Each structure stands twice: as C-alpha cells, then as structure tokens.
C-alpha cells in the first residue's frame, strides 16, 4: 500500500447517513491503515442543527459571505438545496491533494457531478437507503424537520436516487458498519492503483 492520496466523492439523499458512515470509515482507516481522512468541510447558508459544530460539520456563513466567495471563484462547486446554499471551498482541497491525503467530499448529487468534472480522478460513491420508508423514519427521527420539509426531502431523494448510476459505486446503508467496510475496500483498491 502506498501513501498516495485519493479523492473520494460520497453522495446520497438527505438522511441516508452519509456523515455517520464517514465517521465509521475514518475509524477503519486509522485502525487498519494508520491513515487519516480529511473530510472536506462544506460551507452552507443554513442554520446549524442541534449538535453541529461550525468548522467541523459545516462552515456556517451568511448569504453575503457565500456570494462573495462565488464571485471570487472560491468554490470547487456550489448549489442551492431546499432553500439554502451549499458549497465546497477550493483552497483546502488543493492543500490536502498536494499533501497526499485521503480527501472525502460529502456533497449532494448535483455538487458531486461538478466535483467529478473538476476532479476526474476522484472515485465516486452513492449511498442508497435500504428503503424510502427507512429514509422517512431517519428524517423524522432527527426532530428538526417539519412534515412538509420531510416530504420535500423525500421527493428530492427519489430524484437523486434515480441518478445513482452516474457514480462509480453504489452501496446500500443497511448498517453503518457494512457501508463503511464497503467504502473502505473501495479506498484500498484506489490506493493500490
């Protein structure tokens, strides 16, 4: 196994458990490879959810700040989703690529398409829910969404899942450990190339 870096784009519908799977993946990389994972922290104009930490889960910014970065080409990609803006700042990505890190992008489907265009060497993974009923349960379980918001997210999720064939790999998040193990194997294959 070499110490080359790897760009990994992870996408999937809201509520599918991307963040939880990525944390389990981080632990596997530390334990099995002694490697760290750099999670590209997206910027958003939405308000933090309970427990989210600025600079860890997202960088929470004003619409004005976000617009200034758009004007200065400071994003690798950005998109509007459910009334808020989300974007991937370009500067930290370049720094970690040059350092040979394993860089993970946790972004929505449209942003993932842009990332694959900008970084064609990236490996892309789409995480599917076991079912839409389970996805509804997970979204409801957050306790942060209105019934209308959940329905809107489920409509968007169906559209996003229909685009899963655009990704290099599609995995089901039936359990966090199974999903993380599958992505771990994908990373190992990518590092061996």
Report on this structure.
This protein is an alpha/beta fold and 193 residues long. Helix content is 45%, strand content 22%. It has helices spanning 18-33, 63-71, 90-98, 109-118, 132-141, 147-161, 176-192; strands at 6-11, 37-40, 43-44, 59-60, 75-81, 84-89, 102-106, 123-128, 169-172. The protein has a 5-stranded parallel beta sheet, with helices on both faces. It is globular and about 45 Å long. The mean pLDDT is 89.
Q: DSSP helix count? A: 7
SSE series: EHEEEHEEHEHEHHEH
Euclidean distance between termini CA atoms? 9 Å
Shape estimate: globular
- Biggest sheet strand order reads 2-7-1-8-9
Unreliable residue stretches: none
Return the structural class: alpha/beta
Q: Can you give the mean pLDDT?
A: 89
Q: How large, in whole angstroms, is the Cα Rg?
A: 16 Å
Strand content: 15-25%
Count of DSSP E strands?
9
* Proportion in helices: 40-55%
Main sheet overview: 5 strands, parallel
């Amino acid at each position: 196994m070499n110490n080359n870096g790897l760009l990994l784009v992870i996408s999937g519908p809201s509520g599918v458990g991307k963040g939880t799977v990525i944390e389990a993946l981080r632990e596997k990389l530390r334990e099995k490879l002694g490697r760290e994972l750099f999670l590209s922290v997206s910027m958003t104009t939405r308000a933090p959810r309970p427990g989210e930490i600025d600079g860890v889960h997202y960088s929470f910014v004003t619409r004005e700040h976000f617009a200034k970065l758009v004007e200065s080409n400071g994003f690798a990609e950005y998109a509007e989703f459910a009334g808020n803006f989300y974007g991937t700042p370009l500067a930290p990505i370049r720094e970690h690529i040059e350092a040979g890190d394993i860089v993970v992008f946790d972004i929505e489907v449209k942003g993932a398409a842009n990332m694959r265009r900008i970084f064609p060497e990236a490996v892309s993974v789409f995480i599917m829910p076991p079912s839409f009923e389970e996805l509804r349960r997970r979204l409801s379980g957050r306790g942060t969404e209105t019934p209308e918001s959940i329905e809107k997210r489920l409509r968007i999720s169906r559209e996003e899942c229909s685009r899963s064939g655009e990704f290099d790999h599609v995995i089901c998040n039936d359990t966090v450990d199974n999903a993380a193990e599958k992505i771990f194997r994908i990373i190992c294959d990518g590092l061996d190339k």
